[in-house]
Structure formats: structure tokens, C-alpha cells
Amino acid sequence: SPSIYGDVTRVHQEAMGCGCPVVCWDTDPFQESHPYKYAKAFDTADMGQKIMDTYSDVLDDREGVARQCRSLAERYFDINFEAQQIVSILRDVVAEQ
């Protein structure tokens, strides 16, 4: 649901769930992407800097970064809730037919 997950992709969710930091543009109007870091929209210099900052964070404390990413994923990306929403939508579609 865009109102819940914004611009988040499954790859983003799985990476964060595995403890891999994600950097994304700050274009999510709902502020629900919950990446490790946001970069200014379409600012490649800022994106590059956020990637370098993330790399530095990983070099300094890989396990801490992984824990933070995993924690964000567990808090914001509930696959069971997402599945319930999909089932609800499909039931509505079937009921209308």
C-alpha cells in the first residue's frame, strides 16, 4: 500500500531485514521508506556523500549498522500486515464480481 510503504521496494525491505543499509532519495511523500539514510532528491553529489557516509559507518561498526537496519525493517515492514492487505483487496475484487 503506497499509504503505508511509500516508495519502498521488496529489495529495499529484504536488504534492510538482512542488515544491509539502504540509501534512497527523499522523494517519499509519506516519509515511510525508512532507509538507513536519505539523500536529497536527484542530487547525485548528496547521494554519493550518503553512500560514503554509510560506508564509513559500516567500517566503524558493521554490527551496529546491521542491528539498526534490522530494527528499522522489523518496526516498519510487516510482511504479515502487507499480506493481510492484499488478501483484503482481492476479497473485495472477488465480491464485486
From TrEMBL:
Gene3D superfamilies: Glycogen Phosphorylase B (3.40.50.2000). This is Glycosyl transferase family 1 domain-containing protein. It comes from marine sediment metagenome.
